[in-house]
Amino acid sequence: MRSLRLVLRNLRKSPGFAIYTILSLALGIGANTALFSIFDEIILKPLPVVEPDRLVVFHSKGVNSGNISSDNYETSFSYPLYLDLVERLSTGAGAPFESIFARAGGSVSVAGVGEPDVAWAESVTGNFFDGLGLKAAIGRLLNQNDDLKEGANPVVVVSYGYWKEHFGGRADVVGQKLLIDNHPIEIIGVAPEGFDGMITGREPKLYYPLHLKTVLSTGFDDLTNRRSAWIDIFGRLRPGAAISHAEAQAAPMYRSILEDELRQMKGPSDRMKREFTVKKLDFIPAGQGINVLRKRYETQLAFLLGMVGLILLIACANVANLFTVRAIGRRKEMAVRVSMGATRSAIVGHLLVESLVLSVLGGVVATVLGYWMEAGLTYFVSSVQPGLHWHALVFNFALALVTALLFGLVPALQASNPELATTLKDEGGAVSATTAQGRLRQALALAQLALALTLLTAAGLFARSLGNLQNVDLGFSTDHILTFELSPSLIGYTPERAQALFRDVQKHLEALPGVQRAATVLDLPLAGSNTVSNISIEGYKAAPDEELDTHMNAVSPGYFEAMGIRKIAGRTFEERDGDKAPKVAIVTQSFSRKWLKGASPVGMHFGMGAGQGTKIDIEIVGMVADQKTDDLRTDPYEYIYRPLAQAAQSRTSATFVVRSTGDENALGTAVRQVVRELDANLPVRGLKSMAARKAQTMGDDRLISILTAAFGVLATILAALGLYAVLAFTVAQRTKEIGIRMALGATESSVTKLVLTGMLRVMIGGVIIGLIGAFAIGRWAESLLYGLKGFDPLVIVSAVALLTIVAFAAATLPARRAARTDPVTALRQ
Q1: Dihedral angle over CA of 364, 367, 368, 369, nearest 10
Q2: pTM of this prediction?
Q3: Which terminus of the chain faces fewer neighbouring Cβ atoms within 10 Å, N or C?
């Protein structure tokens, strides 16, 4: 406590030193804390359920028969297969699972509270919440009795967030009814706070019984279809059961089920016969559920954590330099202490208390900065809830303690061992330092410059990568195009009524002022949806086991014109291409290159499906330019376009594209009005411009580019301040020498050159080491870049030039101060 009081008194005498040290550490610790908080939320945080370490998700990789529908990257299974697994793996003595449950996600329309809207909902088995060990916040959760037969118990559980947002947290929410997909469904309870489903980032608003899906989804009959995989299966292992033992126990049973399914297939291919029954059933730990955010952000977050770690090292080097200079200024004080009997350990302890106080204060300020930074980061990673959790706060203050040792230990050891006779006889008050201390200061400044160059290189690489993405040729226009989606099936429309509605909407849109063209498409580019189908091409002989999987889409006449897609050959769709007309299609250049060796496809024919019975009855009437459909990085797929009237009569959702010359906000209002006039209960989904969709697909790249640029600038500023501190102290230390030089005839320019030469030596060393770091960080970041390699000469040269300019700017003031030294004043010392 005596040391603490003395430290606080000394810091009050040096407020500038204390404030600069605290802010430097706060920036480094705060940035690390903010990123660790996001990292913890996405990568480390378990589900808020009972014993999440006992949860697994079922996974089976290999060939599939039938249709697959999924909202994530894990394996989907059929409902009949789920029932088989429940019976054989969770019942009876020795069964490895305590419970097995399933879920599937999808959008539903919701009315009855506010404006009609579309919400993400999950259909779950009756034992879903019991299997997770969850209790309701209000009312009750779903149970087995709610999910016994098709259409039974029209009930729903709302999420905690949905309850707060739409019902104001009122307790009387239980018993109220929502109109879900035009069906009145009773609310029976509220899910517990903090539980946002089994897929990170999805955050379902509603949970309803799996068997209710036959009522809510028009034409849905997949509860008995073994060839339709659409649910994710989870299991809770029995206490003490190991995953490896469960897999070994499940293997023969799973093979038996697959053999039964193979026997029920009609005409399976040789590949299906060979590979289907040898698939393994794996159980993957699911303590975090299905973590799609981890798959998306893990590499970027690890890279950014490495960068903020370098920022902290620069801050520590900077503060260590200041402590070294401060320790030299206090050498006489330390000499007096030693001469009066103070031990070296006591002095080191006192100086470490000082560094610890500054680190803790820096950690306190870092908590505030970290909260603000983390809130800013969640703007880009919108699926993460803002707020520093206790893991992050513990990490924050652990980091503060580590930094105290990083920047305080070496200066403390040096200051605790003064040369008593020399120091006590130094009555002139001149600042002096040993050669070792000077080398330490230069080494720290050199390290800061090297790390700053490394971070500036990373910032330049990601800035160029972002520029490449912004300038990539999409194959279509993004200017003055508004898009939105309608899903009339959610409110009970039949396919026939839906198609009629789509035609009416398109006709009304084209009549709006300023609208040049309106069209309909099933899978909009950059919207994250794709359809793939197998085809047979006239005259093309497939190799053994070769499948001609091709991306498919269906569009209305005018789509290519509305999207600005360039026609290469033939024609585009016209009104004459109706459901009674000859079947036609339009393909892309990639289709021609892959399947036709670049030959013109116009006039050729293909058929949907594979095998000897496939009808080759679709004529290719045109070819258009390639387009980016998934994202900006993925190369264009080979695409086939079919007329909506011929290929999508059974589809009950569609996306509209509207090209206009007017204001997009005004057009958006007009679009909502058009839909409201045609059906007031039909929600408009995803109303946004194509430019906004392009910007959204670049969100991750923009985030990492902005952050690396910010880190690079911060590192450069800290390095410049560290270099300035070293040079300023060196000039003060050499005041006598400079005075003598000037008294003997040295000019101001020669003195300036003397100081700048010292800076240049440090700068050259920093650049040499920094180039090694730049090469390393470029190799690390290469998988995240687009259109350039990790070691880009233009970026390296620019980073070195910028750092050199900043270094010379930092050296200018000490150099000018040295050049203006008064020889008489200097010699009088």
Answers
A1: 110
A2: 0.75
A3: N
